[in-house]
Amino acid sequence: MPHTLQKSIEQQRARLIDLLGKALKQYAIIVQPLLQDRSLLDEQLRLIFKQIDHCKYLYVLDTQGVQLSSTVNRYGLELADYQRDRSTRPYLQHIADDRIDFNLSAAYISRNKKRPSLTAIQTIRDQQGQRLGFLGVDYDLRELPHSEMIYEEPSKWRQIKGDPAIRQGLFAQERSESLMDKQIDHVLSVHEALVVDQGVHHFQIHFSASRSTIWHIDDPYVYRILTMEELADTNICLAYPRRPYFERAIVPSQQIKQILWQFKALRFADEVIYLRTASLNIVNGKVGLNFSCDGTHYLSYDEFLSKGLAFWLGGATHDATTTNTATLPLDTTQLDQLIDSLATQGCMAVNQLLTRLEQHEIPTALQAHTKAERDYIYQELKSVMQVYETGTCGL
């Protein structure tokens, strides 16, 4: 079972309840005869405080949530807290339910120190079971024991809405050509080289702002900002050591180019709804997309590649003229490289690919490409295959 964020929280709370529950029940029995004598109660709480691991504050409340004792901390007694009304604090939301003996609050921000905290509340009862008050123990989250296992990021598609003001004015805007747009093919090739050959495992491309942020496997805790001036200079690749493709990557290296090409397609496919920022992490395989409507998507790289432009832009209706992806200039140099790569797979594989295209299917290897690019690939491969009229290709 994936170790999700919610699962991690539940497991940590279960550990704390097991750690605290039995001990506080015994301490509640000890303080019960002392509720009417503040001095004896304070002294007993000081002794108990020394026995409770990780405790920040300790106190006793009456049935209405008003403090009967001072507050005990590691420095001594907070006398001024006597008769403090805690009834409205988040850890006493269960105060009306007499059936609850022990309650571990949800995490909250403390009133005084403004720190993430937890409070355990143990009901104090007499021998007849009547509720007399509460024993309260506050904890600073930073000081509690934690599981060493970190939760896993969910693999399902996540969509997050952005600024409503941007969405309301969406159709009054139009994409402005950025410096990066003018050199997009060069910039994407640089990113491919940095990821495949030079150890970058995560990047975020800001198309509209003409900059990129990268994280390198040799120094993963630090990000580096690359301006358009730096990205335009191919010598930037000399600034990073050559590294084999990262062994922890789950994104196949040959699909980095396809992902980058799909980023380009989403950037230019429409003048109103267009890609502003895109990111890729090759270790968890996540693609991040932020559009001009300020909507953000996080999804797996393979799901991203399986979606065509019609999926992202098919629902857009606006008055501005929509750019037809078929009219975008083709990067024939990169397409020819792909065609050469496909041709090396053999005649049978090429014929199967051509057959699927003729049946209006989109092979996996071409799902990141526009219809115009697929048409170009089809025609070129068809021309290549026509050369072979005999031999193994004719079988």
From TrEMBL:
CDD domains: PDC1_DGC_like (cd12914)
Name assigned to this protein: Cache domain-containing protein
Source organism per UniProt: Thiothrix eikelboomii
